[in-house]
Write a structure and sequence with these properties.
With about 150 residues, this protein is mostly helical. The protein contains six helices and no strands. It has helices spanning about 10-30, 35-45, 50-70, 75-95, 105-115, 125-150. α3 crosses α4.
């Protein structure tokens, strides 16, 4: 049951209600991120920041979709920030040729294009480019090593 905080201001009550509804609906809906997307998108439509608890939950449930949503709403700084954090995790996982990771390349490409057109001093485009280069260089090194170790059949 959703409790009511009588000492809270109406705005706090609204956020508590949203959180309780998201918690309840995601419990019922399992791993589906539609509820998280709907809540985050509704908040962004009103040009408000996504609360940290919702952003964190959405990131864990569906990183590519949350990244896409931020890009669609022009939240380039936030999109770059979560991408940088995600790339750090991915780089720590890519330690062998058998590592299985997936990046949303089309969203990353669009983010980089939009960032290049933006004149914001807050963007961390250089940092994103450096991490992507490290990631791609690592994949190339694994691919080159795999090709080097292949012995042609005679």
């Amino acid at each position: 049951m959703i409790g009511r905080c009588f000492a809270c201001r109406p705005a706090e009550q609204s956020w508590q209600l949203l959180r309780a509804c998201v918690d309840r609906l995601t419990d019922v809906d399992g791993g589906n991120s539609r509820i998280l997307r709907t809540a985050a998108e509704t908040i962004l439509k009103y040009q408000r920041p996504v609360p940290a608890w919702l952003a964190e939950r959405y990131l864990k449930a569906d990183f590519p979709d949350y990244l896409r949503l931020l890009i669609d709403y022009g939240k380039l700084e936030e999109a770059q920030s979560i991408l940088i954090d995600h790339l750090d995790v991915v780089l720590s996982q890519v330690t062998s040729p058998n590592a299985r990771v997936c990046l949303p390349y089309s969203s990353i490409d669009q983010l980089m294009l939009l960032s290049a057109d933006s004149h914001s001093d807050l963007l961390r485009t250089g940092e994103v480019e450096a991490k992507m280069k490290t990631y791609l260089d690592r994949l190339d090194a694994f691919s080159a090593a795999a090709n080097f170790h292949r012995v042609p059949a005679r």
